[in-house]
């Protein structure tokens, strides 16, 4: 038995070990202590260096300034030309990189990364840093007002792309007023990441300019003024032996031969000497322009200028018509990738930093605590039910859930994902849905045991027969994930990635780990019997008979919800979709965020997002509250009346744009539409077209029902709700596939019986497991709904509706549409797919004849 399962045991051990390793460390470690504990070479010299760091930080504090260990080390290294890498030999750098300052930047950045906990918390749980970018009026004076507003909207999208390229997860980016953009970054400190703002706000103006013919590099600025139409520009170079930096000067034409607008893609490669280069590929128009420029100027130098800085001036050896070029220069790996990221997302609106501040958690301590408690309660309820109902099988399912959770968190940590409170709730709900696969297997084992099979045979048959159902259900979810990742942006793409992780981890934990544990228990003789409770022993209902009235009633409710959505459209959309006001308040005494939310709710203002912010340049902390339009006066009055000791004073109101803009909403709609088409195609391929139509109609029904009921009960849509509704799609299809798989199995297994009988029989045989799988997810959701608050309650409510309607639709929508599509005729089904019954012919001996 051990030899047969050895490869499974080894694979499970490797994956689980990797997940644990990836999650460590669990928490951030103080940078100064981490650096001190990880300097493994020249301890005496490093101790002296730390004394200088402490002295510099003390002097800065005496002057009223904040200075971090990170910044102090960078300053001292630059001033004394001290190579910090000599204290940390475990951090390997490129041997060709000799510049001390760049080596120190790489070492400090790597130490900072290693000191951080691998799974970072979001703005709602931990806070972060925020800054406001304002349009540079001097540089943008010639841009018309309409064009400027369009560019500001486009800039929000570009900043999001750049931050994603830099590995910042779940940032908040939105326009403020007519000429500002606010950016909030979870878990980021500008003291330890001083360059991040510089990288994301670069305009990225790329020009190709001719260098005066016959003029080469000079070690010093040439005398006199440059010729008319030209200017002096310097190229930074590095001595490969000493690492010192020097500059070569060129006489460069002021007007470019072409701009970088024709660039299609920018990426990083290393040359044969290990130096980083940025490779450019042009689109059709850019390829033609670059070919014309190089053809007409063979033998001349063509300067590559980015944001007014000359990076290289290679000589044109011949006409370049391949549509590609390279930017060479003195690049570190980080600089090269940052530059490629900026070139791929060019920002043509000049921006400048207006203010920077630290942001406190947007949720109160008690809200965070209640959310965590609700998540724990949901997990405990699911585990308690599984143990009670399936006894030993329930214990095995808990083991697989623990492995599932470990793998999900491990993969999220390896991606640098940010964990928010809604994300934590999503993981809990994923746990509820992950037991579906265990329940499918255990219910199959129950059927096999009822037929008189041994526990070993029932175990093997249960996994074999449940495998195809589990596989089809999870493949449909992966299709949805693929569409979200392909078309989605921001929260939609992030949710697609998270859901895909959950799909793979569930398959691994259930089909490999769970099967392995049960194999050792059963095949090893430790488990002789597997008792299970059975609430619904026999279901015998004419489901088709009730299909039409249930269908009509259900869609009537959907229609009612759509009418409510139309009537309440102005109130149904939250700030994430519509934008709102941001009021800034001065105060004399802090008030807990939970109390602020309660006071706002008492005044009839429910959709608010308060946070305390500390200006990084010094100054009094401020309370900023985001709320719907035209409710600022009522909120301020309510707070002043409720908390007179706080002495709240309104110092300014600005309009903020939506975090889910028109483009994100548009792509969300496309993601939903293409997901439905992909589901139709896959199920039609794996089953038959009538099955595919049933799945699509049921999925549309579930989404519309969930949205309608949410609106009818006064809910407001925000960014997490988009993810929750998308999750309903996966849940709905999952349950539908279970029913369809059993219909297909009964059609193949039963040589007689009309389609009505087959559909009723299939639904009756899977009804118990459908109820059980829905119940486990329902337990997790109800715990979040009762014990959670705010956005958690909205998420939980959405899932509660989705669970109920998903179970209902698999029986009364999907199966019924399949039945009606084929006009209730079994032969019509068999004519469209190979699901005819298999007949076995028994031979008889005729020897006596």
**Helix/strand class:** alpha+beta
- Find the CATH superfamily of the largest domain: Multidrug efflux transporter AcrB transmembrane domain
CATH class of the largest domain: Mainly Alpha
Helix content: 55-70%
Mean pLDDT: 80
| Record field, number of beta strands | 19
Rg, nearest Å: 32 Å
By CATH, the topology of the largest domain is: Multidrug efflux transporter AcrB transmembrane fold
The description of the largest β-sheet is: 8 strands, antiparallel
C-alpha termini separation = 50 Å
- How many discrete domains? 6
- Sequence stretches where pLDDT stays below 50 over 5 or more residues: 836-849
Strand numbers in spatial order across the main sheet: 3-4-2-14-17-18-16-19
How many individual helices? 25
What best-fitting shape do the alpha-carbon axes yield? globular
CATH architecture of the largest domain: Up-down Bundle
| Percent of sequence in beta strands | 5-15%
